[in-house]
Amino acid sequence: MSSILFEIDQHVAIITLNRPDKLNSFNREMALLMQEKLDACKSEEVRCVCIVGAGKAFSAGQDLAEVTDPEGPGMQRILSEHYNP
């Protein structure tokens, strides 16, 4: 199942963070999918974007398990590639 769900209903784009078991904390895959879905919201069909979280939490932020993984990309790379405007 995808970590980001996306639908458009009556000109409203609904993006659902879908990792409820991890309190919707972001990992690299999720950040890439979020950017893809936000790009899709540039359509003339979309007038409003609603971002919601599945389960009991909206989002716990960055998934620190990925950041501390010695084989992972590391915090500096994650921040510069996904969160630095």
Could you characterize the architecture of this molecule?
The chain is an alpha+beta fold and 85 residues long. It has one domain: 2-enoyl-CoA Hydratase, Chain A, domain 1 (Alpha-Beta Complex). The protein has three helices and three strands; from the N terminus they run ββαβαα. The chain has helices at 28-40, 64-68, 75-83; strands at residues 4-9, 12-17, 48-53. The protein has a three-stranded mixed sheet with strand order 1-2-3, covered by helices on one side. It is globular and about 45 Å long.
Question: What distinguishing features does this structure have?
Answer:
85 residues; alpha+beta; 21% strand; 32% helix; globular; 3 helices; 2-enoyl-CoA Hydratase, Chain A, domain 1
**Domain module tally:** 1
Number of strands: 3
Helix content range: 25-40%
Structure annotation, total helices: 3
- Average the pLDDT over all residues and give the rounded result: 89
Output the CATH class name: Alpha Beta
User: What general outline do the C-alpha atoms trace?
Assistant: globular
SSE arrangement:
Blueprint: E1 4-9, E2 12-17, H1 28-40, E3 48-53, H2 64-68, H3 75-83
Could you give a short description of this structure?
The protein is α+β, with helices and mostly antiparallel strands.
